[in-house]
Amino acid sequence: MKKITFILAVHNHQPVGNFGFVFEEAYRKSYLPFLKVLESHPKIKVVLHYSGILLEWIISSHPECCPLL
């Protein structure tokens, strides 16, 4: 059987000036659950890209999440 290389890349973004509650809801409903699923499957290799403003928000608002990144 021929080997297939698959690259899973995920881009996460929030626009500059978006409301804090939007960041928080997206983090709680999407970003964090996805990272926890990835953490439970360490053999899955993935590329994660966060826009600058979103990454800055995660670092300042949820620093406990940084090790998952």
Features:
single chain, 69 residues, 43% helix, 2 helices, alpha+beta, elongated, two-stranded parallel ribbon
Order of helices and strands: EHEH
Poorly predicted residue ranges: none
Question: How many discrete domains?
Answer: 1
| Average pLDDT level | 96
Number of helices: 2
Order of strands in the sheet with most strands: 1-2
User: Nearest-angstrom radius of gyration?
Assistant: 14 Å
- Amino-to-carboxy terminus distance: 34 Å
* Structural class based on helices, strands and sheet pairing: alpha+beta
Bulk shape: elongated
Number of DSSP-assigned strands:
2
Main β-sheet: number of strands, strand sense, barrel status? 2 strands, parallel
Helix content: 40-55%
Notes on the protein architecture:
It is a single chain. With 69 residues, this protein is of the alpha+beta class. It has one domain (8-68). Helix content is 43%, strand content 14%. It has 2 helices and 2 strands, in the order βαβα. It has helices spanning 20-39, 52-61; strands spanning 8-12, 46-50. It has a two-stranded parallel ribbon. Strand 1 (8-12), helix 1 (20-39) and strand 2 (46-50) form a beta-alpha-beta unit. The longest helix has 20 residues, at 20-39. The radius of gyration is 14 Å and the shape is elongated. The model has no long low-confidence stretch (mean pLDDT 96).
